[in-house]
Amino acid sequence: MSEDLRPVQEWQAHLAVGRLMLQRSRSTGQFVFYPRVAAPGTGAQDLDWVEASGRGTVHATTVVRRKPPEPSYSVALIDLAEGVRLMSEVVDIAPETVTIGMPVRARIDHGEAGSRLVFVAE
């Protein structure tokens, strides 16, 4: 990816080509999410992009209910195996069945609005 992209733009560019990438500090080995120019806590600017495993666990979940005929959907905090937490949606199952502790894996969906990271139950 290009050096002149901002971290969020670079993360989105990776998603657009089907890659789930995270930043990791060379000096500490710590993974970082949300994309940024410096690691939280240390301020280290030695962040490289590395491929993430895509494995995760639901940390918290809720159901967003919309007026019919629009479907309800889940909003979940996902703890990735790399140690970062992010917010996403668990798809392909009823949102009411998403539970804390559920193992999930990442999937990148591509649509008219761009690429987005979602999770499916394992």
Please give a structural write-up.
The protein is mainly beta and 122 residues long. It folds into 2 domains: 1-52, no CATH class; 53-122, OB fold (Dihydrolipoamide Acetyltransferase, E2P), CATH 2.40.50. Helices cover 8% and strands 43% of the residues. The chain has 1 helix and 9 strands. It has one helix at 7-16, and strands spanning 21-25, 31-32, 47-51, 55-64, 73-80, 85-88, 90-91, 103-111, 114-121. A hairpin with a 5-residue loop joins β1 and β2. The two termini are 31 Å apart.
The ordered string of helix (H) and strand (E) elements is HEEEEEEEEE
Distance between the termini: 31 Å
Form type? globular
**What is the CATH class name of the largest domain?**
Mainly Beta
The multimeric state of the shown protein is single chain
According to CATH, the fold-level topology of the largest domain is OB fold (Dihydrolipoamide Acetyltransferase, E2P)
Number of domains: 2
What would CATH call the architecture of the largest domain?
A: Beta Barrel
Number of helix segments?
Answer: 1
CA-based gyration radius: 15 Å
On the 0-100 scale, what is the average pLDDT? 95
Q: Biggest β-sheet, characterized? A: 6 strands, mixed
Properties at a glance:
122 residues; mainly beta; OB fold (Dihydrolipoamide Acetyltransferase, E2P); 2 domains; six-stranded mixed β-sheet; three-stranded antiparallel β-sheet; 9 strands; 8% helix; 43% strand; globular
